[in-house]
Specification:
The chain has seven helices and no strands. The protein is mostly helical.
């Protein structure tokens, strides 16, 4: 396992999600990046809410990345102690880093990443190639409409996937 530097994690975490990706938490890093992107996009539609949400997200992901870097340093030290210390009680081949809770797993579905890239590309195309269409969409508060549709869709998805209901 490669040891990660905490100071580099801190510097990379200045960009939301990049510190998590450096540590190997790719899905979480991508989620923080998307969250920051959404907050930045929706700032013009709700200027009192989304700057606060962006600041809260930024501070949370910064301290979370530092916590995860510290946890990884401690877990690596424990792994090395179990592997190389002569008084360790377990055989070195029985310790598995992937069995520890919270260890980064690469479980990003490529379909979601591809869909996000398509949506971001279409949005960028509308903004640059069709500026009049973009100005019309911002006049009718398309950000608020998309946010409300997204929240309704996410809520319906959660209700559908709820096994206790």
């Amino acid at each position: 396992m490669i040891k990660k530097k905490r100071w580099l994690t801190f510097m990379l975490a200045m960009v939301p999600g990049l510190g998590h990706m450096y540590l190997g938490f790719k899905k979480l890093g991508l989620q923080f990046m998307i969250g920051a992107f959404v907050c930045i996009i929706f700032i013009p539609s709700m200027p009192t809410v989304f700057p606060f949400a962006l600041a809260a997200l930024w501070f949370y992901q910064l301290f979370d990345a530092l916590q995860k870097a510290t946890w990884m340093k401690i877990s690596i030290a424990e792994h090395e102690r179990l592997m190389f210390h002569p008084d360790s009680f377990g055989a070195p081949w029985t310790f598995d880093m992937n069995s520890l809770p919270g260890f980064p797993q690469d479980d990003i579905n490529p379909a979601w990443v591809g869909g996000a890239c398509v949506v971001a590309g279409v949005l960028l195309l509308i903004i640059t190639a069709f500026p009049t269409l973009w100005s019309i969409l911002t006049e009718i508060n398309i950000g608020t409409i998309l946010l409300s549709v997204g929240l309704i869709g996410y809520g319906l998805r959660m209700l559908k996937n709820n096994t206790r209901a």
